[in-house]
């Protein structure tokens, strides 16, 4: 048992650190949920990509450098330590790309991955619907076969789609077999958000910015070439991304370790005025370390060929609550200044509040932990009065 | 980078587990609590024969030359199987080559000496003894005790943290078994979300406690951080475990009580959470917490 890095890993770490030190913008970029900030974040992605640092774990042909899982974690640690910009491309590179690698055709891989790596095309996840949240499989948006044109016609409505306001492409699930129910008969589609028949309507979030959007589909044609995975297999295809989202890739420990380190700096500054916040500060730091060490355990297991499985749900509850705890401690230290928007703490706090909701709510994750890890009886499902506890 | 136990470490833990289960460590603990220390002393001897007290003594001094990770492996099992006797003192604080049962006070972390009625007091003069909520522990006042170095104290704190993780795991396992079998309102109580979610939170807390304890053993983080989190996680396990058992969990006769009271005792033994939080902060910022 050891946490030692190899000489190659240390060299990689040094290279990444040096590059970030020289290149991370001195001033934080404007919010990516504004037109100006969006463009600057895209430029930043291009800069990272030119160095093959935007998607380090990807194959070289599509913009990566074939980094190992360990190197990926190192990269993330350095990235957040350096205070580098948030990743406008995150839902594409972390949630969609793994599926394209696993289920996409070579043609799709060649067509979509390089522009995702450079940040030229930003992708939005279009899964949730007004009536299908936690119970995603109850989704109603439809796909109807169009043999004449060799493709499908999409109708319906998606919602809460992060960054869809400015994004270029979307990925989502539609019911392609009207006679099917629940998990069967769904298909995974890729579509440009400026396609004919698509209307994107931005939604202001808690902080007032249009961080997500509704997407309306009115007879939108998608050619067969943009179907991801087999027709009717959309649920299984989609669930391989859910694992990524809850598990390792979306929220790496580097992010929380960096935030906890900033919290310690704030404590040095403000702790004397708020000694009662001490425990929260220490616990936040310990929590970040717990997440870091836990992740090294996960990485070891995955590197040995293990699977993430339901452990992703353990992860998800932990990081989402940790993120809030870190920011709450920061706000408590700031005292009456906490509500002011001129420190990054309130912004980070408001963002953290959504963590227990997106990527599968924490209630659903706790169900998964209880049922799949502890082996407790499954939830009753279905309409009240007609419960089936199977 | 390989953050997992080696096969040897896993096998070592299993050997201790097997030995303790074969010796009915729970019955041994109950006897110990009622003043009959003979079965406990016999089990101590068998565990000492495995090398437990000499685990972290260097090989050239006749010990097993084990690492702090090995120590964590052993103490997690000791916690899970409810070992009795001054293991922290004899295997972590002041490791004993010959397997002797020794005890010590080490104020402010451990102001009393545990189990001085059977163990040799390493230094100082024994005074009055006091019962603990953990009936398997008896605490004795000591005057004039010698001080220990930081490394020795840190080993004791680490061993205590590992024991807490093991005890927490045991409470969780017993609770899961219980809620799958106890029925109310025509269903297993483990099918109710209020129960499931509480137990899921315990699973999550313990899953993050173990890497911290192992990380502290590797020197990645201060042992105080591991003690704080392991205490919180084990305490959550105890509170939740009691709650999901209902009244039966509140009885002395039901074995769960032994772990509930052990956890309560260990949370403040070898440094209170407040003490260790202060120490973490001081280590990190240089400012006294
Ligand atoms: C900031 C943010 C960004 C998002 N980005 C995207 C995106 O890019 N793409 C996308 O498709 N979606 C996105 N979402 C949507 C997100 O996936 C959903 O909000 C989530 O799946 C929950 O669905 P819901 O909001 O409809 O809540 P509901 O499912 O209606 O849940 C409401 C409450 O009921 C609880 N609940 C529901 N079912 C159960 C149950 N069986 N047992 C116990 N409790 C239950 C939930 O836990 C929750 O507390 C985003 C959400 C947020 C907040």
TrEMBL record, chain A:
Residues 232-374 form the Acyl-CoA dehydrogenase/oxidase C-terminal domain. It comes from Nocardioides marmorisolisilvae. SUPFAM superfamilies: Acyl-CoA dehydrogenase C-terminal domain-like (SSF47203), Acyl-CoA dehydrogenase NM domain-like (SSF56645). Residues 124-220 form the Acyl-CoA oxidase/dehydrogenase middle domain. Keywords: FAD, Flavoprotein, Oxidoreductase. Its cofactor is FAD. Belongs to the acyl-CoA dehydrogenase family. It comes from the Bacteria. This is Acyl-CoA dehydrogenase. GO terms for molecular function: flavin adenine dinucleotide binding; oxidoreductase activity, acting on the CH-CH group of donors. Gene3D superfamilies: Acyl-CoA dehydrogenase/oxidase, N-terminal domain, Butyryl-CoA Dehydrogenase, subunit A, domain 2, Butyryl-CoA Dehydrogenase, subunit A, domain 3. Residues 6-120 form the Acyl-CoA dehydrogenase/oxidase N-terminal domain. One of its GO terms (cellular component) is plasma membrane.
Automatic annotation (TrEMBL), chain B:
It comes from the Bacteria. GO terms for molecular function: acyl-CoA dehydrogenase activity; flavin adenine dinucleotide binding. Keywords: FAD, Flavoprotein, Oxidoreductase. Its cofactor is FAD. Residues 152-283 form the Acyl-CoA dehydrogenase/oxidase C-terminal domain. Transmembrane segments: none annotated. It holds the Pfam family Acyl-CoA_dh_1. The keyword Kinase does not apply. Residues 6-125 form the Acyl-CoA dehydrogenase/oxidase N-terminal domain. PANTHER family: ACYL-COA DEHYDROGENASE (PTHR43884), ACYL-COA DEHYDROGENASE FADE28 (PTHR43884:SF20). Belongs to the acyl-CoA dehydrogenase family. This is Acyl-CoA dehydrogenase. The lineage of its organism: Bacteria, Bacillati, Actinomycetota, Actinomycetes, Propionibacteriales.
């Amino acid at each position: 048992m050891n946490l030692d890095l190899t000489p190659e890993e240390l060299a990689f770490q040094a290279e990444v650190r040096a590059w970030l030190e020289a290149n991370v913008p001195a001033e934080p970029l404007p919010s990516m949920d504004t037109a100006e900030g969006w463009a600057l974040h895209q430029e930043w992605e291009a800069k990272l990509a030119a160095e093959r640092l935007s998607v380090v774990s990807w194959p070289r042909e599509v913009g990566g450098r074939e980094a190992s899982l360990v190197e990926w974690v190192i990269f993330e640690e350095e990235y957040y330590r350096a205070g580098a910009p948030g990743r406008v491309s995150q839902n594409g590179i972390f949630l969609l790309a793994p599926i394209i690698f696993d289920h996409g055709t070579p043609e799709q891989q060649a067509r979509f991955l390089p522009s995702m790596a450079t940040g030229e095309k930003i992708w939005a996840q279009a899964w949730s619907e007004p009536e299908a949240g936690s119970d995603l499989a109850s989704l109603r948006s439809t796909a109807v076969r169009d043999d004449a044109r060799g493709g499908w016609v999409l109708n319906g409505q998606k919602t809460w789609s992060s960054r869809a306001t400015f994004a270029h492409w979307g990925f989502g699930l539609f019911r392609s077999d009207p006679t099917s129910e629940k998990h069967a008969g769904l298909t995974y589609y890729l579509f440009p958000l400026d396609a004919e028949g698509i209307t994107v309507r931005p939604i202001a979030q808690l902080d007032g910015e249009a961080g997500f959007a509704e997407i309306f589909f009115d007879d939108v044609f998608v050619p067969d070439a943009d179907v991801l995975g087999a027709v009717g297999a959309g649920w299984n295809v989609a669930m391989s991304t859910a694992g990524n989202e809850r598990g390792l890739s979306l929220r790496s420990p580097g992010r929380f370790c960096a935030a906890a380190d900033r919290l310690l700096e704030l404590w040095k500054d403000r702790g004397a005025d708020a000694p009662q916040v001490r425990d929260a500060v220490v616990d936040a730091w310990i929590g970040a370390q717990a997440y870091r060490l836990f992740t090294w355990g996960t990485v070891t297991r995955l590197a040995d060929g293990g699977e993430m499985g339901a452990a992703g749900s353990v992860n998800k509850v932990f990081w989402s609550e940790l993120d809030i705890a870190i920011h709450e401690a920061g706000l408590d230290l700031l005292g009456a200044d906490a509500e002011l928007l001129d420190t990054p703490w309130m912004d980070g706090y408001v963002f953290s509040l959504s963590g227990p909701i997106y990527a599968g709510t924490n209630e659903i994750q706790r169900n998964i932990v209880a049922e799949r890890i502890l082996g407790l009886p499954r939830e009753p499902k279905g309409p009240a009065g007609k419960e089936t506890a199977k | 980078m390989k953050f997992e136990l080696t096969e040897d470490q896993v096998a070592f833990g299993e050997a201790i587990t097997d030995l303790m289960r074969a010796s009915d460590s729970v019955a041994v603990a109950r006897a110990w609590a009622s003043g009959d220390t003979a079965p406990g002393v016999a089990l101590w001897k068998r565990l000492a024969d495995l090398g437990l007290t000499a685990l972290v003594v260097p090989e050239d001094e006749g010990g097993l030359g084990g690492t702090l990770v090995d120590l964590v492996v052993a103490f997690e099992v000791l916690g899970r199987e409810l070992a009795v006797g001054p293991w922290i003192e004899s295997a972590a604080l002041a490791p004993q080559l010959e397997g002797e049962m020794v005890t010590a006070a080490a104020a402010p972390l451990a102001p009393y000496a545990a189990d001085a009625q059977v163990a040799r007091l390493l230094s100082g003069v024994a005074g009055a003894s006091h019962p603990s909520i953990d009936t398997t522990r008896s605490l004795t006042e000591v005057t004039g005790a010698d001080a220990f170095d930081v490394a020795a104290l840190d080993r004791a704190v680490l061993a205590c943290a590992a024991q807490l993780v093991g005890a927490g795991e045991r409470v969780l396992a017993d609770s899961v078994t219980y809620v799958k079998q106890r029925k109310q309102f025509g269903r297993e109580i483990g099918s109710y979300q209020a129960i499931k979610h509480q137990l899921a939170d315990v699973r999550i807390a313990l899953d993050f406690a173990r890497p911290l304890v192992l990380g502290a053993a590797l020197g990645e983080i201060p042992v105080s951080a591991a003690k704080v989190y392991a205490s919180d996680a084990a305490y959550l396990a105890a509170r939740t475990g009691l709650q999901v058992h209902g009244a039966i969990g509140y009885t002395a006769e039901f074995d769960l009580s032994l772990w509930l009271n052990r956890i309560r005792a260990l949370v403040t033994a070898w440094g209170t959470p407040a003490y260790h939080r202060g120490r973490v902060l001081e280590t990190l910022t240089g400012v006294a917490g």
